[in-house]
Write a structure and sequence with these properties.
Number of helices: 2
Shape: elongated
Distance between the termini: 19 Å
Radius of gyration: 15 Å
Largest sheet: 6 strands, antiparallel
Structural class: mainly beta
Length: about 100
């Protein structure tokens, strides 16, 4: 989960996710929760499983739900792409400087 701190720096943490309808739920720490409450634009990144594989990058609107020990971050995806270095003919035609496959947005 990538959030933005109050000084503008990115804050990255590893999270487990759970799908709930059209949104992604995560449990995370207090800094991420504070960042999402103040600046709700977030991203999620899954690195490739195999060498040369695609990363999955999902941008979304974050929202803090719950309270106390049950607080979670809910992410509604707004954009998603499979991405890897290098240019393919299809991605170049779409204006992507890397090999990318748009999934959402």
């Amino acid at each position: 989960l990538l959030t933005q701190g109050e000084d503008g720096r990115p804050h990255a943490v590893a999270v487990s996710i759970e799908w709930q309808g059209d949104r992604i739920l995560t449990s995370t720490g207090t800094r991420s929760v504070s960042n999402v409450a103040a600046r709700p634009l977030v991203s999620l990144l899954w690195p490739p499983i195999d060498t040369g594989g695609y990363s999955l990058i999902v941008d979304g609107d974050g929202r803090v739900i719950g309270s106390g020990s049950a607080v979670r971050v809910s992410v509604t995806p707004t954009r998603g792409v499979l991405h890897r270095p290098g240019v393919s003919a299809g991605s170049a035609a779409r204006g992507c400087g890397s090999d990318c496959i748009p999934l959402l947005g």
